[in-house]
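step=predict obj=Glyoxalase n=133
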Amino acid sequence: MTVRELRLVVTAADYDEALRFYRDALGLPERAAYASPDGRVTILEAGRATLEIADPGQAEFIDQVEVGQRVAGHIRVAFEVDDSPATTAKLAGAGAKVIADPVRTPWNSLNSRLEGPAGLQLTLFTELGSEEG
């Protein structure tokens, strides 16, 4: 048995706001969209998918590093972006609530924390690479 795709399904009360934010502001390309008499769904590409599982202690540590206190629920979505400060500003302009500005982490990435549409807590991260010299 092989898993071929991880798909995170989010129910958004304001579908149009969520679509504008994740597709138009964050830039996730639209793969497909479907409608039925009961509603609509759009599938957005988000690059490579991984499932990160953390125990409560590690989740607390990550929140402390990124935000300074425990703030995330049991699900947080993380997006790797080329420029986390610029993307944080862009998404704030598109309606996201900035919980914490970008901070350099002990694992050498630049991470920010936001709350997006549908109440999703987001981490934006930019890998900084290895330090030399």
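step=describe
The domain at 15-127 is CATH 3.10.180.10 (2,3-Dihydroxybiphenyl 1,2-Dioxygenase; domain 1).
step=end
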